[in-house]
Design goal:
The protein is of the alpha+beta class. It has four helices and eleven strands.
């Protein structure tokens, strides 16, 4: 009885422990992430690029600059012509098996609703003082997950905007949840005055 009670108490203690977190400072912003995640340095060409490596070895990359990409602007469809699909590797075909996709003889004459095969969906939420798109793949683990903020500063017809995108590809459910939780902690102190 005593041994069973000790095991039960130890199990409850371990189950109630919250993961440890740390704040990573990228100079332009700070983000709070699980302590097992590490900063990943990348050299950008025309913008500030860097990121994180998760405990599952996923790479999460941000791009802060004029050309940061919004995945929802050129909607990708999971519709493929037979000739294109035939050139896919076995690994690519295996990955597609778990997704809602369509293989057609001819893309231009095929009868389908594009909205049914969009690769991404998004929600508008806020991060610090900005509106952000939280983007995720419609098919879990198949595509990028992350955020896009259209304008941190700048704008207008004759000026450039500073944008922020922060994505990870093919994330597991648990990593995507942790990543979105971390994204909500971003503090853009340089931009939110």
């Amino acid at each position: 009885m005593r041994k069973t009670l000790s095991i039960l108490i130890l199990t409850l203690i371990l189950a109630c422990q919250k993961p440890e977190y740390k704040t990573v400072d990228f100079k332009a912003f700070k983000i709070t992430v699980p302590s097992s995640w590490n900063k990943h340095k990348i050299k950008g060409i025309d913008s500030y690029v860097s990121g994180l490596i998760t405990d599952k070895n996923d790479t999460l990359i941000f791009d802060l600059g004029w050309y940061s990409h919004d995945l929802t602007k050129n909607p990708e469809l999971l519709v493929f012509e037979e000739s294109e699909y035939a050139e896919f590797t076995t690994e690519q075909k295996e990955k597609l098996k778990g997704t809602k996709h369509l293989v057609v003889a001819d893309y231009t004459s095929a009868d389908f609703q594009a909205k049914d095969y969009l690769k991404y969906e998004f929600e508008i939420d806020s991060i610090d003082c900005f509106e952000a798109k939280f983007i995720k793949p419609r098919n879990k683990g198949f595509g990028a997950s992350g955020i896009y903020i259209d304008s941190l500063k700048g704008g207008g017809p004759n000026s450039n905007k500073t944008r922020l995108s922060f994505y990870g590809n093919n994330l597991s459910d648990s990593t995507q949840v942790e990543f979105f939780r971390a994204l909500k902690t971003i503090k853009l102190t340089k931009y939110c005055e």
